[in-house]
Amino acid sequence: MKKYGIIIAVSAVLVSAVVAQVLHAQPQEGQLKPGDSPLYATVEMNCLDVKMELSKIYEQDGLNRVNAGQLYETMSSRLMTRLNAKVVSDRLDGTELVRIAADYEDALQEFRDEYHDYEVAMNALLNADCQSRQQAFYLALTEVRASREAVYESVEAIDTATKEYYEAYEEFRDDYLSDADDTPPAREDANSVE
Amino acid sequence: MIRRQLERMRTVWNSLRAVLQQPKLLFPAIVAGAIAISLVLVAISMVLYNQSGAAQLDLSRPSYEAVRSQAQQTDALSAFEAPNGPLTEEDFDRFEAHFKDIYEGSGDDDTYNMKHYRRVFTPDVLSDSALGISVESE
C-alpha cells in the first residue's frame, strides 16, 4: 500500500508539472493579448539576414556592457566614493556630493537590472523561429526594443547623475578654496627662536 | 505525524546503512552519491550564474568570441588617491584630471570613456529599417 501511495504521489506531481507547463505555454503560443497588434500586420523580412544582424548587435552589446560597466564602476568606486570619504572624514559639508553619489548608485543598479532583462530577451529572440512564425518573432522583437529603450534611459540617468556630481564638486571646491583663502595666517609663536 | 516521519527517516537510514555495509555496494554507492551531490551543486551554481548578472559580463561565452579581444583593462583607468592631510588645490586638480579621463577620455583611445558609451545603447539599431523589415498594418 505504501508503495502504491508513493507511486501515485510521484505520478501526481509529474502530471501536475506537465499540465502547469502546458497551461503556462498556451498564452504565449496561441492566445492573443490586446497589445498584439503587430500580429495582425504582414511582416516581410529575410530571416537569416535579420538574425545575422541581431547576432552582431548581441555581440557588440556584450562588449559594450563590459567596457561601460568598468567605467561606471570606476567612476563610482575610485573617484566619487574616495572623494566623499575624504570629505566626510575631514568633517566638511559634502551633503550634496553624498546625495548625488547615492543617486548615481541607484542609476547604476537600474542599468544592471535593465541590461539583464534586455540580454535575456535578446537571447530568447535569437533562438526563436523566424522562418515559420514571423509575426510572433516580430512581436518578440518589439519587446526587445522596449527593453533596449529602458537600458538607454538608464544610461542617460547615469550620465545625468555624473554631470550633477561634477557640478556639485565644482561648487564644493570653490567654497572650500575660498574659505581656505579667507582663513587668516597663523600667528607666530612668541617663543620661537629668531 | 512527526513520529511517522521520523520512523520513515529511520527506515531509510537503516536501509542505507545496510547497503553501505555490503562491500560490493559500498564503492558504487559512494560514487553515485558524489555524482548526485556534484549535479546538485552545479545546478545551484548555474542558477546563481544566470540570476546574479554574471552571465551578461562573461565574455568567455561562445557567442562573444569575436569581440573578446576588444575588452578594455581596468588597470589603465584613473583612481583618486585621497591625501592624508587637508585637501589642497593640487588634490582638486588631480581629481578633475581623473574625472575627465574617465568621462571624456584621453590619449589615443577616444572611445573608452563614458561620453562614448552614452550613445552605444540607442534603440535605433533595432528599428525596422536597420534590420531590413517591412511591416504592413491591416
- Name the assembly state: heterodimer
* Structural shape of chain A: elongated
Radius of gyration of chain B: 30 Å
Low-confidence stretches of chain A: 22-32
Helix-strand makeup class of chain B: mainly alpha
What gyration radius of chain A follows from the Cα positions, in whole Å? 29 Å
Distance between the termini of chain A: 107 Å
Largest sheet composition of chain A: none
Q: What does this molecule look like?
A:
The complex is a heterodimer of chains A (194) and B (138). Chain A has 194 residues and is an all-alpha fold. Chain A has one domain (45-180). Chain A is built from 4 helices and 1 strand. In chain A, α2 (47-89) packs antiparallel against α3 and α3 packs antiparallel against α4 (134-182). Mean pLDDT of chain A is 81; it is low at 22-32. Chain B is mostly helical and 138 residues long. Chain B has 2 domains: 2-57, no CATH class; 72-131, no CATH class. Chain B is 55% helix and 2% strand. Chain B has 6 helices and 1 strand. Chain B has helices at 2-21, 23-51, 54-57, 89-103, 114-117, 128-131; one strand at 134-136. The model of chain B has no long low-confidence stretch (mean pLDDT 84). Chains A and B meet through β1, α2, α3 and α4 of A and α3, α4, α5 and β1 of B. β1 (42-44) of chain A pairs antiparallel with β1 (134-136) of chain B, so a sheet runs across the interface.
Structure at a glance:
Chain A is mainly alpha-helical and 194 residues long. Helix content of chain A is 78%, strand content 2%. Chain B has 6 helices and 1 strand, in the order ααααααβ.
Which terms would index this structure?
heterodimer, A: 194 residues, mainly alpha, 4 helices, elongated, B: 138 residues, 2 domains, 6 helices, 2% strand
What does the secondary structure layout of this molecule look like, with pairings?
The complex is a heterodimer of chains A (194) and B (138).
Chain A: H1 2-29, E1 42-44, H2 47-89, H3 95-126, H4 134-182
Chain B: H1 2-21, H2 23-51, H3 54-57, H4 89-103, H5 114-117, H6 128-131, E1 134-136
